[in-house]
Amino acid sequence: MGLLDGKTILITGGGNGIGKATALMAGAMGANVVVNDLGGTLTGDDAGDAGPAESVAAEIRAAGGAAISNSDSVTDFEAVQEMIESAKKEFGGLDSIINPAGILRDGMFHKMSEDDWDSVIAVHLRGSFNVARASVEYFRDKEAGNYVFFTSTTGLIGNIGQANYGAAKLGIVGLSRILAMEGERKNIRSNVIAPFAWTRMIASIPVKDEASAQRVERMKRAMRPEQVSNLSLALCADSCDTSGQIFSVRGNEVILFSQPRPVKSMANIEGWTPESILDVCLPAMKPSMEDLGPTTSVFPYEPI
């Protein structure tokens, strides 16, 4: 008996990287898998290709599992609705959606085009809305359902040159949290994962010096897509009651992130003025403020 026997899972971005590893693992664990992948380039600026999704679905079937493929874009709401209908028609229902589909169009914000902003927001944030909105009423009707969304440390912590990506990924955190809150009474869970894994997205980051090259090589060896798949699929199990959380997977380390809560408060019974805020309030709060360090400053140690 597999952990996911009889479950049906829609996995977007399932033709490559984390999505592919998760689809193959889900099939091996007994799930029926709908493998979605546009089959496009990393920047999402081509028409796509049905081959990657079908190749993964065929591999699942060849290993004795059950899978179908789909090559539509998560940015198309009607196409996402059709993915969900296909799951119901082929496998009799849908239990979970895992949504790592994404693109990158990096660049400094002062040079970023509207198209590069809109395209990244469309795939990541609008795509996450689409898969949730197209399925949430079905999940509410059957009083069971589960979402695993993907955020990034670029959204949670920050990274230069990725304003579009960071904005989208932090937006997904807010979406997931509210889906979890609104879905609690209907047994609908939602969580997000910020993955560290060697994928074509990570491979696209420019290597500027020898130290960066060594760091990339260590990442390639130590942080693999299937390590992220383990958590993704654990969150889909019937025995999991976790919801509304932010996780990260870094090699063999599973990390639970804090969520925004007040860290310091300053009150002035006479009321603040701009001058007193500058003189008293902000200086008192400064030791509690976060610095502008990127992800590498928060995770300076080697992956386990």
UniProtKB/TrEMBL annotation:
Family matches, as InterPro entries: KR_dom, NAD(P)-bd_dom_sf, Peroxisomal_Beta-Oxidation, Sc_DH/Rdtase_CS, SDR_fam
Name of the protein described by the UniProt record: SDR family NAD(P)-dependent oxidoreductase
Coiled-coil features, chain-numbered ranges: none
Family: Belongs to the short-chain dehydrogenases/reductases (SDR) family.
Source organism superkingdom: Bacteria
Ranges of residues in domain Ketoreductase: 7-201
